[in-house]
Write a structure and sequence with these properties.
By secondary structure, this protein is α/β, with parallel strands linked by helices. The chain has three domains: about 30 residues; about 325 residues, Rossmann fold (3-Layer(aba) Sandwich), CATH 3.40.50.1820; about 100 residues, no CATH class. The chain is built from 15 helices and 13 strands. Keywords: Carboxypeptidase, Disulfide bond, Glycoprotein, Hydrolase, Protease, Secreted, Signal.
């Protein structure tokens, strides 16, 4: 056993000894892991007692499509903890850069070094982050055609193959409880992957135990059009602009026209008024936050096409982008850049069928609930891009359609001695929760509350009623 003790008081020699000791223990505890994917240590990384892995899984042998993943085992007793696959949205943004290194992973880049995230989700689970679809982050294909006209269906298929082949590399995780989680456009990715898992489950045993969707796109018109009321109720737009934004040209119509290159003068006029009033000095993903946020939070470029050009970023340096573009970091991660010069948060080479955005996934969520798979939809309540009001009404409508009665009435929940948010549960299987004070990227902006929510979700328990 390795001695325990605080790192601060340690000499360099003692620290090195402990690190060696931990890595020896780690090696002993898991002899059937693939050494080629094991991370010895990331540059600037503090010593940790858990193992982590990264590398490529080929999902299409013919076109040599390879998806890059980062996997952090649970901090303690990984064998008794569930496996959680986490996906970020975009479509085309990185689960490594956004999820793992900015939100709920074990480390955050800070200049030359990594600092521990004390609210890392690998305290409760084995966390698997995948850069998907191919063309995102370090994921690549030998054939450029793999980046063209990529759609939800192809992405779901690749994600399923990824998971099947990843389990071949890490067989000891195959029979563990599996949860799928993600945010934003992952409101498309996750239910579609879950559907495929359920379909093949007669042949292969995936132990799918639940899905969690943060500020997700589930039903295009409802999600996007709830933006007007959110902006108006938070004082970001005037009464007259609110009226125009709901009657003359609503947001879903604007996005539809934008991606069909058929922008009507009337929509153009309404949107420029909305942009003018909301101001470029407010972060649409977190309306209460001062603007100084890295580009890591740009994973909803498809949902907010107009905001990408006007976003001012007074933080010139993006720590995650700088860190992941270092040669020594890429080497430690077993990562390589293929067909691109640098690692980017969101892909510049991926040509995604963005109008897949208009195909609702809420009915898929319903079919999963019918199959007995618990679903949690949660919302950072300061996000104006996919506001809580749209998500809440979609969950309520789904519960009504499925004939689910309220089992936990709408109430506050606690984390520490503070209100963590609000929640409502239907039929003990479909839940909605808000995370108070959180942005579109809830684990980034409210890490403690997000971890509390995550823990309750994994345990299948209602959120704490008292502190």
């Amino acid at each position: 056993m390795c001695p325990s003790g605080t790192w601060k008081a340690m000499s360099m020699a003692a620290a090195i000894f402990l690190q060696l000791c931990y890595s020896m223990e780690a090696v002993e505890s898991s002899s059937h892991h693939h050494p080629d994917h094991k991370i010895i240590s990331l540059p600037g990384q503090p010593p940790v007692g858990f193992q982590h892995f990264s590398g490529y899984i080929t999902v299409d042998d013919h076109n040599h499509k390879s998806l890059f993943y980062y996997f952090a085992e649970a901090e303690i007793t990984p064998a008794s903890k569930p496996l959680v696959l986490w996906l970020n949205g975009g479509p085309g943004c990185s689960s490594l850069g956004v999820g793992a290194f900015s939100e709920n992973g074990p480390f955050r880049p800070d200049g030359e070094v990594l600092v521990r995230n004390e609210y890392s989700w690998n305290r409760e689970a084995n966390m698997l982050y995948v850069e998907t679809p191919v063309g995102v982050g370090f994921s690549y294909s030998k054939s450029n055609s793999s980046y063209m006209a990529v759609d939800d269906e192809a992405t779901a298929t690749d994600n399923l193959v990824f998971l099947q082949r990843w389990f071949n590399k890490f067989p000891q995780y195959r029979h563990m409880d599996l949860f799928l989680a993600g945010e934003s456009y992952a409101g498309h990715y996750i239910p579609q992957l879950a559907k495929l898992i359920v379909e093949i489950n007669r042949k292969e045993k995936f132990n799918l135990k639940g899905i969690a969707l943060g500020n997700p796109v589930l039903e295009f018109a409802t999600d996007l059009n709830s933006q007007a009321e959110f902006l108006w109720s938070h004082g970001l737009i005037s009464d007259s602009t609110y009226n125009m934004f709901t009657s003359v040209c609503n947001y879903s119509r604007y996005v539809s026209e934008y991606y069909r290159d058929s922008m009507s003068p009337v929509c153009s006029r309404v949107m420029s008024q909305v942009s003018k009033e909301t101001s470029k000095f407010v972060d649409k993903y977190d309306v209460t936050l001062d603007v100084c946020i890295s580009s890591v939070l740009s994973q909803s470029k498809v949902i907010s096409p107009n905001q990408m050009t006007e976003r001012i970023d007074v933080c010139v340096e993006d720590k995650t982008v700088n860190y992941l573009n270092r040669n020594d970091v890429q080497k430690a991660l077993h990562a390589r850049l293929v067909g691109v010069r640098r690692w980017d948060v969101c892909s510049n080479i991926l040509d995604y069928q963005v109008l897949n955005l208009e195909i609702p996934t809420i009915s898929l969520v319903g079919s999963l609930v019918k199959q007995g798979i618990p679903v949690l939809v949660y919302s950072g309540d300061q996000d104006s891009v996919i506001p809580l009001t749209g998500s809440r009404s979609l969950v309520y409508r789904l519960a009504t359609e499925l004939g689910l009665n309220t089992t936990v009435p709408y109430r506050v929940w606690f984390e520490g001695k503070q209100v963590g948010g609000w929640t409502q549960v239907y039929g003990n299987i479909l839940s909605f929760a808000t995370i108070r004070g959180a942005s579109h990227e809830a684990p980034f902006s409210q890490p403690g509350r997000s971890l509390r929510l995550f823990k309750s979700f994994l345990e299948g328990r209602p959120l704490p009623e008292v502190f």
